[in-house]
Amino acid sequence: MPFAIYVLGLAVFAQGTSEFMLSGLVQDIAADLGVSIPAVGSLTSAFAVGMIVGAPLVAMLSLRWPRRRALLAFLVTFLLAHVVGALTSSFEILFVTRVIAALANAGFLAVGLATAASMAGPQAKGRATSVLLSGVTLACIAGVPLGAVLSEFWGWRSAFWGVAVISAPAVFAILRSVPATPVDAGAPSVRYELRALRAPKLLLTLVLGALVNGGTFCSFTYLTPVVTNVTGLSTGWVPAALALFGIGSFVGVNLGGRLADSRPGQVLAVGGVALLAGWLLFALTAGNPVVALVLVFVQGTLSFGVGSTLIAQALYTASDAPTLSGGFATAALNVGAAAGPALGGVAIGADLGFRSPLVVSALLVATALVLAGVARAIGTAGGGVSKANRPVERPAEARS
Q1: Could you give the CA distance from residue 124 to residue 327 in angstroms, rounded to a whole number?
Q2: Residue 77 near residue 344 (C-beta atoms within 8 A)
Q3: Secondary element (H or E) of residue 240
């Protein structure tokens, strides 16, 4: 893999830390800015909405920018939003910075996925995707706990400063390592890319990605009450459980990346069935501490292995939409990340117990498997990676 792809992964690590770190800062921000805890919780919702809306929208706006310029613009905007957030004493301004940071994050990830895929070559999009997504998994393992530690010793603002500090070297590294290539005059237009995105196989892949990611974040969001209320472990085990899930997700992303380019069908079929079985088994055996902790790791591995393979398949399938495919894949994953926890919350609110998010996760994955099976039966999912990789002769309208 070119060094520049790992640089993009560093930036994604900073952005992933920012996205998830608020879970450990809610009370401190509420007390410091004199607002309610639900109000601070709206910062997370604002970030999620910004990612969903921003990914395709910002990708379209930057379609005619050189990729290095777009990456730098998004990353510098992201960095400055955190500097302002760390300095402000106004909740309203902090809210605006979270929206801006989300839009910049969405744009960076959309362009970053396209850039990494093009630099890795036509047969290594899965490995390139796994490097970028490794940044998100490492954020769960190290970045979010580090943000909580900084907040405990120096206040919540130090976590925002930490994200800005991590982002700074990535800015300079992108300047030095990402080639300053001009915009390809023959690159497809926005209209052409949007038309290419209507392909049934791509739409199916995006829906499957949203469902699988919804299942992942449904259970991950409520992992703490599962560990403490169902498994019966003390709160001291919560960081260990979260770390196990994060380590598993890192392993899954890297395994998925190695297999997504050569055997994507097997990864999705075998991994999808195993993922469904794992959520069901977790729901049944969550009261056993040893089994529960093992399954936390296993499900992290399977969730991100299958999820990263679906993203790679979206990039392969949408070869005629090299930039917007990354934006829509990002949006689809964030739809799942927002919908999954909401559905899990509905199940808990209906007094179904803290095992219910695990069952919801199983239902979401089962839905994905049923959709994939139906699509395969009627021929929608036909065609493999090799077919998606064949050069396509674009008509003149693609360059208009």
Answers
A1: 19
A2: no
A3: helix 238-260
**189 phi-psi bin (left φ>0, alpha ψ -120 to 50, beta other):** beta
The Cα 143–Cα 29 span in angstroms is 18
**How confident is the model at residue 49, as a pLDDT?**
80
Report how far residue 190's alpha carbon sits from residue 60's, in angstroms, rounded to the nearest whole number: 7
Where do we find the tokens 């999820």?
307
**Residues 372, 268 contacting (CB under 8 angstroms):** yes
Contact 215, 371 (CB under 8 A): no
CA dist list (Å): 31 to 40, 47, 122, 132, 155:
10, 21, 51, 35, 11
Q: Which amino acid is at 363?
A: L
In this structure, the dihedral spanned by the alpha carbons of residues 334, 339, 342 and 346, taken in order and rounded to 10 degrees, is: -170
pLDDT tens per residue, range 178-223:
776 666 555 556 676 677 677 788 888 889 999 999 999 888 878 8
Other beta carbons within 10 Å of 115: 27
Nearest in space to 12 (alpha carbons), one of 145, 176, 133: 133
Cβ neighbours of 227 (radius 10 Å): 24
Going by C-alpha positions, the residue among 102, 178, 111 that lies closest to residue 325 is 111
**Cβ within 8 Å of residue 166, ≥6 positions away:** 10, 13, 14, 17, 143
Burial class for 311, CB neighbours closer than 10 Å (0-12, 13-18, 19+): buried
> Alpha-carbon distance 361 to 213, whole Å?
9
Looking at the chain, which runs of residues are DSSP E strands? none
Task: Calculate the CA 260 to chain-centre distance.
Answer: 17
- How many helices (DSSP H) and strands (DSSP E) are in the chain? 17, 0
**Alpha carbon 395 to chain centroid distance?**
33
pLDDT above 90 covers a percentage of the chain that reads 24
